[in-house]
Here is the input.
Amino acid sequence: MKDRLRRSRLFLPGNNPKILQDGGVFEADSVILDLEDAVSIDSKDEARILVKWALRDVDFRNSEVLIRVNSPETEFFEADMGVISDRVDGIVLPKAESKEDVKNVASVLDEIETEKGIGREIIIIPTIESALGVLNAYDIARLPRVAALAFGAEDFTKDIGAERTPEGTELWYARSAIVTAAKAAGVQALDTVYPSVHDDEGLRRETETARRMGFDGKSAIHPNQIGIIHDVFTPSREEIKKALAVMQAIKEAEEKKSGVIALNGRMIDRPVVERAKKVIRLAEAAGIDTEHLPEE
Amino acid sequence: MPVNAVGREIPREIDGRKLIPFGGAYARGPEGKLHAPKIPPLIKPGESKVLPSLDDAIEKAGIADGMTLSFHHHFRDGDMLVNMVLERLAKKGIKDLKMAHIALFPVHEPLVKYIADGTITSTEGSLNGPTGRAISMGKMKGLATLRSHGGRVRAVKAGEIEIDVNFIAAPTADTYGNCNGFWGKSPCGPLSYAMIDAEHADKVIAVTDNLVPYPALPFSIPQTHVDYVTTVEKIGIPEKIVSGTTQITRSPARLKIARLAIQLIKDAGYIKDGMSFQAGAGGVSLAATKFLGDMMRKEGVKGSFAMGGTTRYVTDLLKEGLIKTIFDAQLFDLYALESLRNNPDHVEVSSEMYADIHTKGAIVNRVDVSFLGATEIDIDFNVNVNTHSDGWLLHGTGGHQDVAAGSDFTMILAPSFRGRIPVITDRVTTVTTPGESIDAIVTERGIAINPRREDILDRLHGSPLPIMPIESLLKKVQKITGAPEKPEFEDRIVAVIEYRDGTVIDVLRQKKMR
Here is the structure.
């Protein structure tokens, strides 16, 4: 499903069986079985074998299952794509720089889907982690199969020759550009990982910033980061109440067969409706019963 | 052989000792009168209780072959007294001693040789680590009896353990025998487990490394119970009272267990004003205690009391005013000592008041929710904390049976497997606590509620928690780990696992060596 919630995407190193077997336990919206950066060059084979078995045997519960393959320019790409089975929901494509990069992967997926009889579309989440990728982000985001654009800060910083700072000022342009490109193409924008696993406060701050910027989710490199990320993406009571009022106005307009939706005398346009729907989805994902919102 | 209420075969008698099969958590009421020690000898004004050395005290107490000795375990793995006393007795060639300690730890490994050479021929306390292993191997001539904290108090009161000499490692003692664990160079906090022994033993020796002028306050053990006072260089290492860890776990699976447990008690309706709880030590329990505090704060709830084993996270709740009282029978870290010393709402209680079933109401009966651990849990909710799934005796019972039976909602917090060994199994190696006392099992892969608790299941209706029948949880785990082979045992029974009421819930046989 292209537009499912992706508040959190948890990276699971493909060569670590202990972590893979717990992959479904942490309730990340997506898990990424990683064949790329988390796996050293001499462990690529074993990671592929382990991921293949994990896809067969591990219960990932409600998490979307993504595979991060090595870049198509590497010798590993082809074998990586070979692990895809009908348990895979999507591919995370590293270092996406042009629409050709994504198109090539899409055509490989066409073949795999036919060959393996996979009856649904495997999505692609390109990761933008270079200057060229940022400039081509909109073209990439518009392609079929693309469900979201992800941002990779570490490689991007190296690519532009910037210094990585705790405040992340060097990333502002790229992050904004990626959110804008993704939204213009009607797909999600997913923020980079927060690398300090023990700094819960730092993670919370950076996730809050991402949310305010328009990102739909943030990647996690440790399961303990998921709770905080979900917490930040949980709408406040005020937001939920507002969203419920919008939904009520839509219902009333439908009942009156009126083409105009109005709330408190003001017309509601489409983005507001979409926003309200999303707030309700986020609230429900956080386990909030929006139909019986408790009194304060 | 008779089969008890948890389906275990219990012999009618072992070595002339009659065993009563366990019949249910509250099936056996008390009988008879309390056991009493000898009336103590006259102590006239001006007489001194202070003896120059531990050797003198041992001499004076008249320790002889076949006697029963007791020791408290407040220093846990930092205890120095047990080894000191046993070394001296072994040197004197004393044999056939019955050890009625509360609990032994890895530090007490020297006792393994005294078990093997017949200095010690039976034990009446918890065995954690090497001494338990030695008993599993059949090295001891007689039997090991394992009891819960409350069960041990009951056995002393009933005269089933008759203590000849009780040694008290006393962090502070005055010259007339008043002792406490609050002060001195080796503080251990409460002396809760020593209290009942001091009352019932024929001879009581306070051994201290901080002898102070009369009177020492507070007198956790009063002068009226103490025969002699003596000094040694050091009685124990306070830093080693730490049980397991003082740090909240960083393991994502274990944090998840703690979070699920707190959500469970919330959804089951226990987060409310006046609530009480007990949580132990160990990374998961610490996390659960912290998350419980977070939840109480969020919900604006003020609790009543926490029963300790006390950790810094429990004392933080008291400091913040989220609970009114800590009842403390044992410290699990030294941070909690500061609170015990300075906060009048943090009070020392005896192990009798904490956990004894045959008393006029123990504190465990007033606990709403408890968080306990397990080495194994089976589909009847029976819990094993004494042995590992490989059949080795490695842990004492602690307060497990007492808290499980007393508290209204007892949760076992455990990972679904450790290493490759599943914690949930079809049948536990030994039963420590009967399934009837266990209300919920919380693992990172799901929660199982005891079907007896229909009320809880009703309250949890509609809860988004991953609640499933325990059979499904077992299947889930076995899908990953497979079903491991069961350990093999010889015929000889090496340990009796008593229930808190004195009946026998299980026996442990000598481990078959390959």
Remarks:
- Chain A has a mean pLDDT of 93.
- Chain A touches chain B through twelve residues (CB under 8 Å).
